[in-house]
């Protein structure tokens, strides 16, 4: 199979390529990535010399580039995005340009090149927020109620993907995933930020609404689910990918302090970001019953494994830490 992965120099996309090349060593993967602050060649170093791997530096929002990149491609997996809510508050425009317009250009290229499957990576955050005590989980057919510029751009992109399906018959699938953690995640996101602070013996900054919670998934679980959706998923359908494992900001902090053997005095509280959603939770009934997927990586064990990875790979995150902290210095969340 010949795949085009976009955003493959970022966190989840690079782990997807690593996963795929190992599982399907005969397949060929092209990675199209603009190399924004979040995309780094260092992240792809371990597979960059694989003979079945090709890298193209380019923007999904450029038709000439995407037409070339989709030539002879059977499956497109679109991870490329501006992905950080905190950054979307400072510059919403780039989120709309990359996530919405970029996705449309990529869909257009895939249509013209007769790509057999366009799989779009989306997020649970398109469904809006749940109350902390609400007894329901988001289902695939729920309406989109995004509340932040990032979430709105992802929801808009999903609508464009479905419009290509209904209008042009493009062979699309979409997956909505919960919060990921694992190796190679940029140190401005909560888990790597806390881990790298603790490695440096610094306090960890919790948002004041520290009871707000997320559903956490190890990145390989996400990528295995995407693999199954590509292989077995029905064109025109959306699938939710989650674990049911909910952790508050406070829980994450406490688990990490336990792993590092540090006291609770390492926690400090900073202002919330604007529009901080309280909670998301996905029902995974559809992907479990129709495609036979379920998450297998247990949270505590894989959080510990992630800590080990950051301890062993300072070469990767240390050059990025300064930029990550500069972002929070600007917003007073340091
Ligand atoms: N991180 C999560 O917890 C999570 C959860 C659910 C869904 N998602 C979605 O998964 C995808 C990947 O997320 P991530 O956390 O790996 O993000 P990331 O920010 O680590 O990586 C994004 C990658 O996209 C590239 N990129 C950005 N703009 C581009 C453009 N115009 N053209 C080509 N490449 C471009 C960047 O250079 C980077 O390599 C995103 O679509 C995101 O919305 C993420």
From TrEMBL:
One of its GO terms (molecular function) is dTDP-glucose 4,6-dehydratase activity. Keywords: Lyase, NAD. Its EC number is 4.2.1.46. It catalyses: dTDP-alpha-D-glucose = dTDP-4-dehydro-6-deoxy-alpha-D-glucose + H2O. Residues 4-305 form the NAD(P)-binding domain. Its cofactor is NAD(+). GO terms for biological process: nucleotide-sugar metabolic process. Belongs to the NAD(P)-dependent epimerase/dehydratase family. dTDP-glucose dehydratase subfamily. This is dTDP-glucose 4,6-dehydratase. It comes from Candidatus Woesebacteria bacterium RIFCSPHIGHO2_01_FULL_38_9.
């Amino acid at each position: 199979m010949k795949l085009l992965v976009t955003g493959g120099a970022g966190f989840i996309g690079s782990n997807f390529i690593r996963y795929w090349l190992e599982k399907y060593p005969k397949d060929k993967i092209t990675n199209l990535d603009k190399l924004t602050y979040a995309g780094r060649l260092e992240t792809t170093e371990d597979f960059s010399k694989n003979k079945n791997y090709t890298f193209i530096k380019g923007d999904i929002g450029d038709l000439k580039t995407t037409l070339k990149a989709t030539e002879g491609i059977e499956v497109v997996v679109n991870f490329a995005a501006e992905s950080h809510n905190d950054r979307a508050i400072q510059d919403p425009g780039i989120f709309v340009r990359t996530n919405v317009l970029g996705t449309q250009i990529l869909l257009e290229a895939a249509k013209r090149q007769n790509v057999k499957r366009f799989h779009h990576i989306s997020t649970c955050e398109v469904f809006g927020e749940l109350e902390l005590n609400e007894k329901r989980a988001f289902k695939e057919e729920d309406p989109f109620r995004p509340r932040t510029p990032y979430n709105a751009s992802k929801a808009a992109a999903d609508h464009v993907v479905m419009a290509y399906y209904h209008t042009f018959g493009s062979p699309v699938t979409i997956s909505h995933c919960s919060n990921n953690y694992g190796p190679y995640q940029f140190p401005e996101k909560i888990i790597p930020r806390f881990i790298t602070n603790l490695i440096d013996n610094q306090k960890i900054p919790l948002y004041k609404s520290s009871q707000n919670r997320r559903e956490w998934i190890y990145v390989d679980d996400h990528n295995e689910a995407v693999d199954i959706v590509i292989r077995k998923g029905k064109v025109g359908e959306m699938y939710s990918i989650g674990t049911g494992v909910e952790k508050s900001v406070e829980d994450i902090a406490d688990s990490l302090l336990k792993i590092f053997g540090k006291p609770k005095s390492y926690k400090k509280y900073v202002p919330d970001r604007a529009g901080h959603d309280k909670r998301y939770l996905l029902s995974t009934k559809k992907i479990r019953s129709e495609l036979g997927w379920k998450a297998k990586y247990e949270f505590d064990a894989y959080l510990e494994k992630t800590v080990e990875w950051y301890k062993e790979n300072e070469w990767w995150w240390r050059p990025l830490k300064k930029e990550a902290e500069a972002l929070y210095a600007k917003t007073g969340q340091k």
